Amino acid sequence: MDAMSGLVRKTLPNYLSGLPIPNTFGGWFRLGFKDWLSLIPPTAVVGGLVYMSYLAFCPEARPKPSTKVNKKIRLSEGKVVDMVDIEDIAEKAAYCRCWKSNNWPYCDGSHGAHNKECQDNLGPVVISRKKN
């Protein structure tokens, strides 16, 4: 905790007081190359804080997910319907519910990337034979 208080009380004020910030508008035009280079880090920090605040307090600035779920499976059809006979299923089969499988209608685990990106919890429908 002493390191943090030392940073806030001594190091940061000394760093900021050493920055070449002119007193007049015309003073900006008299700054040298090294002066401009020394202004880049604090400007980047302030810009980053402003951008993060903008994203936090302006939800309309965040990218909106597409409302369309199916983006690649038989798009020319009005409704995608698959029929599978129970007799064709081995002991167990996993069917895709996220529309991202490259092995449609079977699940290939593509929902994992979707879940990570969207904080979703999609998973397959697993159908298994009942054992007597």
Describe this protein's structure:
The structure is a single chain. By secondary structure, the protein is mainly α. The chain has a two-stranded antiparallel ribbon with strand order 1-2. The model has no long low-confidence stretch (mean pLDDT 85). It is built from three helices and two strands, in the order H-H-E-H-E. The radius of gyration is 29 Å and the shape is elongated.
Write a brief caption for the model.
The protein is mainly alpha-helical.
Keywords for this entry:
132 residues, mainly alpha, two-stranded antiparallel ribbon, 3 helices, elongated
Give me the secondary-structure topology:
Elements: H1 2-17, H2 33-57, E1 92-95, H3 111-118, E2 125-128
Antiparallel strand pairs: 1-2
Task: Give the class from helix and strand content and strand pairing.
Answer: mainly alpha
Let me know the largest β-sheet. Answer: 2 strands, antiparallel
Order of helices and strands: HHEHE
Strand order of the largest sheet: 1-2
Mean pLDDT: 85
Q: Strand share of the residues?
A: 5-15%
The N- to C-terminal Cα distance equals: 65 Å
How many strands appear in the DSSP assignment? 2
Question: How many helix segments?
Answer: 3
